[in-house]
Amino acid sequence: MLAKPVIQQLDKKGFQLRLFSRSVNPSLFINDYDIVRGDVFNPDDLNKAVKGCDAIHISLSKLDEKKSTEAIVQVAKKHGIQLISMVSGATVSEENRWFPFIDNKFQAEQLIINCGIPYMIFRPTWFFESLELMIRNGKAMMIGEQPNPYHWVAADDFAQMVTEAYLQKEAANQTFYVYGPQRFLMKDLLKKYCDVFYPGIKKVSVAPISLLKFIATISRNRELKSATQLFSYFQKIKEPEVTTAADGLIGKPKITFDKWLEIQKEQS
Known about the structure:
By secondary structure, the protein is an alpha/beta fold. The chain is built from ten helices and nine strands. The strands form three sheets. The protein has a four-stranded parallel sheet with strand order 3-4-5-8, with helices on both faces. It has a three-stranded mixed sheet with strand order 6-7-9. It has a two-stranded parallel ribbon with strand order 1-2. The radius of gyration is 19 Å and the shape is globular.
């Protein structure tokens, strides 16, 4: 969801890229990239991936980010990496470390900030692309009411900001919040998304968090448990109000939700 558009934007700007992942499908890309398959916790794999590179962009999913980042930083120092960037989250902060998921990201950020290598940290909010994940078996379902509005953003806008940051020396050692141009409630966006791509879905269902927690415990469903915990967190936490110099340095998201819908329809 996030790696592909960043890869494409960096490629357009002339960066030479090496992709490192547990599984990379070359058919996802038009160009024939240098691809290294491996485990971030395997030193041999990681050394092979990093050798000869100038910078590392970390975009992780379903991994322990603190431990992964720790391994990456160690290898980065060994190979003389000149810049490290990572994808974090808009609500990552000291005061939200009570939630383990956020605490893990916060500690990963601190490892990068304190490693001695110039860094860039990106804290995006919710992505339009994640709406598709809420469609299951012909139904649209949210976990909890989610009463807090967020500045939803398009992955393509995020990719352009990351790429622009890599082109600006002044972007080093900064943290960038990535907020879209409009603020929405999750339920409103999901309903509009369904109207366009799933017209047969007439309503957005809201599953009670307490019920799903009970089901996850009884069924020992780790994926459901993790999702319920995450949505329970966002049920409580508001998007931070921030002011950032990023607008002038690396630009800001411009794609509205309606424009994003048009782009998705053209590409489908």
